[in-house]
Design a protein that fits this description.
Largest sheet of chain B: 6 strands, mixed
Structural class of chain A: alpha+beta
Structural class of chain B: alpha/beta
Largest sheet of chain A: 12 strands, mixed
Order of helices and strands of chain A: HHEEEHHEEEEHEEHEEEHEHEHHHHH
Distance between the termini of chain B: 46 Å
Low-confidence stretches of chain B: 242-251, 258-299
Number of strands of chain B: 10
Oligomer: heterodimer
CATH architecture of one domain in chain B: 3-Layer(aba) Sandwich
Shape of chain A: elongated
Mean pLDDT of chain B: 82
Helix content of chain A: 55-70%
Strand content of chain B: 15-25%
Helix content of chain B: 25-40%
Low-confidence stretches of chain A: none
Bound molecules: adenosine-5'-diphosphate
């Protein structure tokens, strides 16, 4: 049997080689499927690692308060499950919430992250649609985000019209790398650029946007120019020295329950929980995308089945000859089955190479760092093999069942 | 030593219900080891059906077939394939080499299905190619071989596994006279070494290599005569007919026998003519004979 399998593999390789173009076309579905599954998953994995990294580099001991009931907790306050619908809810945090937290004894400082709608215009009339975020002086410190040029505003500058901008804003709006001292108009108010951020990686504080395209201004200025119409999507809370996150999180929860009339439509997360939750959301998203990509694997399998059927018909005479010289149905079956399996296995391996290439280009072309892990690569290759076996079965059975006499007559 | 072939009342009936065709009608035949049997007969007379049954590609509808002393007429397809692999070597009119394999690989293929190791079978295949005088063509692909060479490779493939029986179905049908001669000399050589050969031919000249000639007609063996090697029996020349014909149909049959025999003598121009009958035979003769042979029309 092993001799036979070896011979069949040899035969299959020969047959595949002699119809190179067709074989590659047949493999295409599998190649695309495997490549997209791996790329999707390694992107997700990369972002997860980046977030964990960003938290590791930022200040420890920070609570995050977010609108909506994002998690379910057990009696002991441990997160049991994420509540994804809430992430898309309409709940928001208000200025009152911010004040309520700030009043708590054990709180050292609060840093709101709020968005206002404003378009940035330069003096020469260039416009740029950026995210405008009103925040506190501790933002850079708490998130561990580095600044390439200039500096972040301090507490004492909290009521001045200063703007710290993302890298992309500098390039797009001001068309220079270091536009420090330049002026941007936000809702008709002049803001002076005081610093430019280093490139933002994916991190737990983005709130979904690309912070490289964001303009950061002091929260009070944001309130002032928007007529108090700020939209707080996150509050970072730093406990006083000696106070644990856990303890403070209870206090914050109690304080907010009061302002919200007992309704738990907000979430207080410790740093560890933030990372975990973001990771969970990400892996859900990743598996969703990978699932869609996996469908193309199935489509690839159907493609293999199609071509194998064509090939079986074309090689009817060959089948007749093989049978006449003593091939059993089983031997014919395994010949075609092995051929289908090899096609999809090779397709899978090429798919892995394509994915690694794609990852490489994503790495050098964007700020993302996709990470292809061995388990997912192995899984994708295994899946493509299984698909070859499954979708090769029907054509192989058709080949094995051919009548030798009829087949020998086939032109 | 058991006879190589022993057919007892073997019938082959195609179709079912009231549209059946009797392709073989209670055939009895014994072929001993070392015989070189030529089979002649018009298209539709049942030659292919007989070869298919004897070559284990098909099972008889009725009757018993013993191959080298073993009853094989009721074997399941899997056993049938294995018996075919171990006992039969086929030579076809159209060579039937696998186009993607080299001559050597083609010859080695039957051994692969026996599970022989690669080195062993290539060695054995090399010897078989040597036997047909084509050692220098081992790595040629079939498309680079001449017709005569291709058929010699096919012969090597048929004999590589030392089969009990070599079946040649119009082996010279696609060859010119020179190559036909080479191929037949090769078969005669195999025969001289002790092989048992069964050959269908339309060319009476070729019967001179045989030790026995069967004439088929309407699914039966009409005549069965022993001949000396080197002689073409008279009956073969006349297309196998000696039976007096009375009705019109039988005469038509005779004409078709004549037609399929005569062009065979004019060697160069006959390629196309002989290639087609295999196909045409399936239509015209069936139609012509159906009224006489189908059970449905009789009742
Ligand atoms: N697969 C088949 N189905 C129905 N009839 C067949 C089939 N094969 C052969 N026949 C019929 O059986 C008869 C004998 O055919 P065949 O053995 O091919 O004769 P020959 O080889 O001498 O031309 C013919 O009447 C032919 O039409």
């Amino acid at each position: 049997m092993t001799i036979l399998a070896g011979r069949n593999v040899h035969m299959a390789l020969k047959s595949i080689k002699s119809t190179k173009l067709r074989s590659v076309l047949t493999m295409l579905g599998i190649i695309i499927g495997v490549a997209s599954v791996i790329t999707a998953v390694s992107l997700g994995e990369g972002v997860r690692k980046q977030i964990a990294g960003s938290v590791a580099t930022s200040a420890k001991n920070v609570l995050t308060v977010r609108p909506g009931k994002l998690v379910n907790r057990d009696k002991n306050g441990n997160v049991t499950s994420a509540n994804y619908q809430a992430a898309f809810g309409t709940a928001a945090l208000t200025n009152q919430d911010l004040q309520a937290i700030t009043k708590i004894q054990d709180v050292q400082s609060t840093t709101p992250l709020s968005t206002i709608s404003a378009q940035a215009i330069t003096r020469d009339g260039r416009q740029y649609n950026s995210i405008v975020i009103g925040t506190g002086a501790d933002f850079a410190k708490l998130t561990g985000q580095r600044i390439s040029y200039g500096g972040f505003f301090s507490d004492s500058e909290a009521d001045r019209n200063l703007a710290i901008i993302g890298k992309t804003v500098a390039e797009q709006l001001f068309q220079e790398n270091v536009p420090i001292g330049q002026v941007a108009l936000l809702r008709g108010h002049e803001f002076i650029v005081g610093g430019v951020f280093d490139s933002f990686g994916a991190n737990a504080y983005t709130g979904g946007g690309d912070l490289n395209t964001a303009i950061f201004i002091p929260y009070s200025s944001a309130k002032a120019i928007s007529g108090n119409a700020t939209n707080i999507y996150q509050i970072l809370v730093k406990p006083k020295a000696g106070i644990t996150e856990k303890a403070l999180s209870h206090e914050v929860t109690d304080a907010l329950s009061e302002t919200h009339g007992g309704q738990q439509d907000f979430t207080v997360l410790t740093q560890a929980e933030t990372v975990k939750l973001t990771g969970k959301t990400l892996s859900m998203l990743t598996s969703f995308i990978a699932g869609i990509a996996a469908i193309s694997l199935i489509v690839g399998g159907i493609g293999i089945m199609n071509i194998m059927f064509v090939s079986v018909t074309e090689r009817t005479r060959e089948i007749g000859v093989r049978k006449s010289i003593g091939a059993t149905n089983r031997q014919i079956y395994s010949q075609f089955s092995i051929e289908a399996t090899i096609i999809s296995l090779v397709g899978g391996i090429i798919g892995v190479l394509v994915a690694l290439l794609a990852n490489f280009f994503i790495r050098i072309g964007t700020s993302l760092t996709p990470v292809a892990t061995w388990p997912i690569v192995g899984l994708a290759v295994a899946a493509s093999t299984v698909i070859g076996i499954i979708f090769g079965t029907a054509p192989a059975i058709k080949a094995a069942r051919k009548d030798p006499i009829e087949s020998l007559r086939y032109e | 030593m058991p006879d190589v072939i022993e057919l007892t009342n073997v019938s082959k009936i195609y179709g079912f219900g009231n549209a059946t065709t009797v392709a073989l009608d209670e055939v009895n035949l014994i072929v001993k080891k070392g015989e070189f049997v030529a089979i002649m007969g018009a298209s539709g007379s049942g030659k292919s059906s007989l070869l298919n049954v004897i070559g284990l590609l098909d099972r008889p509808t009725h009757g018993t077939y013993s191959l080298s002393g073993r009853v094989v007429s009721r074997l399941r397809p899997n056993r049938l394939a294995k018996a075919r692999r171990d006992h039969i070597g086929f030579i076809f009119q159209s060579f039937n080499l696998l186009p993607r394999l080299t001559a050597l690989d083609n010859v080695a293929l039957p051994l692969a299905y026996r599970g022989m190791t690669q080195t062993k079978r290539l060695k054995q295949a090399g010897r078989a190619l040597e036997d047909v005088g084509l050692s220098d063509r081992e790595y040629y692909l079939p498309k680079n071989l001449s017709g005569g060479e291709a058929q010699r490779v096919a012969i090597a493939r048929a004999l590589v596994g030392n089969p009990s029986l070599i079946i040649a179905d119009e082996p010279t049908g696609n060859l010119d006279s020179v190559n036909s001669k080479i191929v037949l000399e090769l078969l005669a050589e195999l025969h001289a070494k002790g092989s048992t050969i069964l050959m269908v031919t339309h060319n009476p000249e070729l019967t001179r290599y045989a030790t026995r000639v069967l004439y088929m007609h309407d699914g039966g063996i009409m005549f069965d005569e022993q001949t000396k090697i080197g002689e073409v029996p008279l009956r073969a020349r006349s297309g196998g007919q000696a039976k007096p014909k009375t009705d019109e149909e039988e005469q038509l049959e005779g004409v078709s026998l004549f037609m399929s025999t005569i062009p065979a003598r004019a060697a160069p121009g006959r390629k196309k003519l002989t290639k087609k009958p295999g196909k045409k035979a399936r239509k015209t003769p069936t139609k012509r004979k159906t009224p006489a042979k189908t059970t449905g029309n009789k009742s």
